[in-house]
Amino acid sequence: MTFSLIACCSETGQFGAVISSSSISVGSRCPWARSKVGAVSTQNVTLPSIGPMVLDALAQNRNAPESLESVMAQDEFSDYRQVIVVDSTGKTASHNGEHTLGIHAIVDSDHCIAAGNMLANTSVPQKMLDAFLSMPHLDLANRLLQALEAGNDAGGEAGPLHSSSLVIVANELWPLVDLRVDWTDDDPIAELRRLWERYEPQRDDYVARALNPKEAPRYGVPGDS
């Protein structure tokens, strides 16, 4: 039902996740990221609490494999979960339960990992990873979106997609980027790309306004005199 990629940028320290699914509102349940800590995608038969629990474990100075193992040991239905993790050192970890649905696969490299279930074919996560690694000159958001598009071009999910999400954390407690397409009958990945193209020019302004409203750029809306 889902394919995703999570990553840590070795240059900026940002963490990010990109994901798409046939299910509604995938961004509200599956991708998780925390500044200076790590990123998680919990999918297949999703237990959303796995995300923050793994991040809590990472924050206690455990690495990705140790954190994931400790959390999955507490889950009675771990055989139904597919989970991927990346920590602040770039180390990755994954869990792929024996009841993961349909065609499924997980692949990883330094600082990034991709996974999917109910896929059109097993190459989808590898195509995502290849695209992500081939564009080190781009910022994290654009690399993640390119990876998601590459996975979709490789076949994506076996059924129609309806939702997608992009989340990135930097130095603040809130996400630098948190864009979601909760439902569409058209192309949620193309819609996510359009959202990013609207948001990218304003991204840093929102951070500036939050940190120092007195010196922030003007809002440029009616009534802002």
Descriptive account of the structure:
The chain is an alpha+beta fold and 225 residues long. The chain has helices at 50-59, 64-72, 124-133, 140-153, 188-199, 203-211, and strands spanning 2-8, 15-21, 31-34, 38-44, 81-87, 92-96, 105-109, 112-117, 163-169, 177-181. The chain has one domain (2-215): Glutamine Phosphoribosylpyrophosphate, subunit 1, domain 1 (4-Layer Sandwich). It contains six helices and ten strands; from the N terminus they run E-E-E-E-H-H-E-E-E-E-H-H-E-E-H-H. It is globular and about 60 Å long. The mean pLDDT is 96.
Question: Ranges with pLDDT <50 over ≥5 residues?
Answer: none
Broad shape: globular
Rounded to an integer, what's the Rg over CA atoms?
A: 17 Å
The number of helical elements comes to 6
Mean pLDDT: 96
Strand tally, please?
10
